[in-house]
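User: Just a sanity check before I run the rest of the batch. Below are the C-alpha cells for the first item. I only need the designed sequence back.
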C-alpha cells in the first residue's frame, strides 16, 4: 500500500538500509489525502468470544488488540445469516430485497450485473485493489466476472486439505470430508496460505494507495485447528451454549425449518458421549478452537502492518459475515433470524478519527461498511447504497442513531434489531418479539401478547417495503419445508 511521505530522518534511514516497508514508495500527495484500507472478513464467527465478554470461552486476544485501537461495535449485525447474500450486500452496498440475492446459490453478477463493488469503486478512484481468501462467496454464485473488475491481484482461497478420513463419523455424501467435518487438523490450514500471500503483498512497494482484502475462512466448517490451539479448549473445562428444552414451541414452521436446515448435523451430534469425535462437545470444542485460529491469523496481519510502520495511515475494517448456532435454539446452523446467527464482531480503526478503545452500543448493520469507507477515504459519494455512513458514531459512539439493524433470510423473512428488541416477521405472517434485557437467549416469544402491539408496529416500519422476486421456486426451498430438503442429494444441500 501507499504510505505517508512525512517520515522522519530515522525512518528514511531504515528504509534505505533495507527494512521492508509495507506499500512504500508512494506518491506524497496521494498518500496525504487517501489512506490505505485493510479489509478483514472472517467467516461464521459468532459473539461467543472474549471480545464481547471476558467470561466467554473463545479466546480472541488479537480482536481485542484491534478493538483497543479504534471503535468496537458491540451490537453489529449481518445483513443475512448466509455467506453469499451477506457478502453480496456488504460488497455491493445493496440489500437482498433490492438485488434478489437471497441464498447461497444466487449468482450476484447475474442478478445485479451493473453493480460496482466496494473494491471496484476504490479501484476506479485510483486505488490498487488486492486481496486473498474468501471475500466474495466461493463457487459460481459468488464469482466476479471473468475480467475481475474488483481486484487487480487476487489469490483465491485454496480448497481444504482434507484428512485421510472424516473425524466425526459423518460420511454421508460428497461433502462429508470437505465440509461437514470438525476436529484437530494435521495439514496446513488454508487460512495460513491466505495470510502468507497478504504478508508478501504488504512487502511490495506501491505507487498508489491500496485497498487490501483478507478473507479468513475459519471458523467456517470444517472446524479445523492445529494441535496447540485444539489443546487450549480441554474437555474438562469445556463450556456449552445455554439451552432450553422445547425452545421452538412458540415459533412458526418457517422458523423451525430455518433452525433445522442442517438437521443431519444436529441429529448426528446429540446423545453421543462427551469425548466422542462426533459429539456436540467435540463440535463445540472444534468451533471454539477454529475461532481461536482465525484470531491468530488476524494477529499475523496486525503484526505485519505494524512492522511496515504504516498503521497510522491505514484504515482497518474487520467483521464476520454472520454468526452461528452451536446447539442453542435446537440447531447447529447459521441460517436463522435469531441473535446468535446474526450478531457479529465488527471493528473499525480510522487513525485521526476513532478514539482508541471506544465501544459503540448502537445497533448497526454491515451494510453500512460501503458508505462508511467512502466517507472515511474522502471519495466521491456513491449513489444507490442502502447503508448509511457510520462516521458520526466513529467520532462519537454516543451520537444519535435512528436506524435499527435489519436482517433477511430468504424473501419475505426479516428481523429488526433495536437496542432492546429483536422483532422477526416471516413470509407467512408469523412473528417473534424478544426483550434482550430480560431474555438475552430469546427463549420467550412475546409477539402474541397484545401489550406489545405498539412495539411490533414501531419495528415493522423498518421492514423492506418492496422486494424483488427470488429466482428460485420459493415453494421448493428448504426455508419453507424440511421434507423437500430430505429429498435433496447431500452435495446439493
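Assistant: Here's the designed sequence for the first item:
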Amino acid at each position: 500500500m501507499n504510505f505517508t511521505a512525512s517520515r522522519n530522518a530515522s525512518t528514511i534511514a531504515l528504509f534505505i538500509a533495507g527494512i521492508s516497508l509495507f506499500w512504500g514508495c508512494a506518491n506524497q500527495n496521494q498518500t496525504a489525502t487517501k489512506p490505505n484500507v485493510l479489509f478483514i472478513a472472517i467467516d461464521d464467527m459468532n459473539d461467543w468470544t472474549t471480545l464481547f465478554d471476558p467470561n466467554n470461552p473463545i479466546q480472541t486476544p488479537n480482536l481485542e488488540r484491534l478493538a483497543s485501537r479504534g471503535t468496537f461495535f458491540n451490537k453489529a449485525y449481518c445483513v443475512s445469516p448466509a455467506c453469499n447474500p451477506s457478502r453480496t450486500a456488504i460488497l455491493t452496498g445493496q440489500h437482498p430485497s433490492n438485488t434478489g440475492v437471497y441464498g447461497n446459490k444466487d449468482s450476484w453478477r447475474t442478478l445485479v450485473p451493473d453493480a460496482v463493488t466496494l473494491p471496484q469503486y476504490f479501484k476506479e478512484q485510483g486505488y490498487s485493489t488486492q486481496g486473498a481468501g474468501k471475500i466474495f462467496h466461493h463457487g459460481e454464485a459468488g464469482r466476479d466476472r471473468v475480467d475481475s473488475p474488483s481486484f487487480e491481484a487476487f489469490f483465491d482461497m485454496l480448497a481444504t486439505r482434507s484428512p485421510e478420513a472424516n473425524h466425526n463419523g459423518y460420511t454421508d455424501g460428497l461433502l462429508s470430508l470437505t465440509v461437514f467435518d470438525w476436529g484437530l487438523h494435521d495439514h496446513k490450514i488454508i487460512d495460513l496460505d491466505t495470510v502468507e500471500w497478504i504478508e508478501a503483498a504488504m512487502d511490495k512497494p506501491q505507487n498508489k494507495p491500496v485497498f487490501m482484502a483478507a478473507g479468513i475462512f475459519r471458523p467456517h466448517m470444517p472446524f479445523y485447528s492445529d494441535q496447540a490451539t485444539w489443546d487450549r479448549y480441554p474437555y474438562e473445562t469445556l463450556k456449552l451454549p445455554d439451552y432450553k428444552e422445547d425452545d421452538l414451541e412458540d415459533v412458526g414452521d418457517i422458523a423451525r425449518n430455518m433452525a433445522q436446515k442442517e438437521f443431519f448435523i444436529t441429529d448426528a451430534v446429540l446423545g453421543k458421549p462427551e469425548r466422542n469425535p462426533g459429539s456436540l462437545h467435540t463440535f463445540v470444542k472444534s468451533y471454539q478452537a477454529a475461532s481461536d485460529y482465525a484470531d491468530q491469523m488476524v494477529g499475523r496481519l496486525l503484526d505485519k502492518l505494524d512492522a511496515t510502520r504504516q498503521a497510522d495511515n491505514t484504515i482497518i475494517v474487520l467483521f464476520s459475515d454472520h454468526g452461528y448456532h452451536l446447539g442453542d435454539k435446537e440447531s447447529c446452523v447459521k441460517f436463522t433470524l435469531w441473535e446468535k446467527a446474526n450478531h457479529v464482531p465488527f471493528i473499525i480503526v480510522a487513525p485521526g478519527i476513532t478514539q482508541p478503545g471506544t465501544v459503540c452500543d448502537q445497533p448497526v448493520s454491515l451494510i453500512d461498511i460501503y458508505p462508511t469507507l467512502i466517507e472515511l477515504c474522502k471519495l466521491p459519494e456513491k449513489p444507490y447504497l442502502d447503508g448509511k455512513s457510520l462516521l458520526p458514531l466513529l467520532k462519537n459512539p454516543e451520537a444519535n442513531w435512528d436506524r435499527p439493524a435489519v436482517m433477511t433470510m430468504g424473501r419475505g423473512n426479516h428481523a429488526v434489531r433495536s437496542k432492546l428488541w429483536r422483532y422477526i416477521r416471516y413470509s407467512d405472517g408469523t412473528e417473534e418479539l424478544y426483550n434482550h434485557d430480560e431474555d438475552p437467549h430469546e427463549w420467550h416469544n412475546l409477539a402474541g401478547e397484545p401489550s406489545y402491539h405498539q412495539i411490533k408496529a414501531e419495528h415493522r416500519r423498518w421492514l423492506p417495503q418492496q422486494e424483488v422476486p427470488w429466482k428460485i421456486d420459493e415453494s421448493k426451498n428448504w426455508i419453507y419445508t424440511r421434507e423437500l430438503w430430505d429429498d435433496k442429494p447431500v452435495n446439493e444441500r
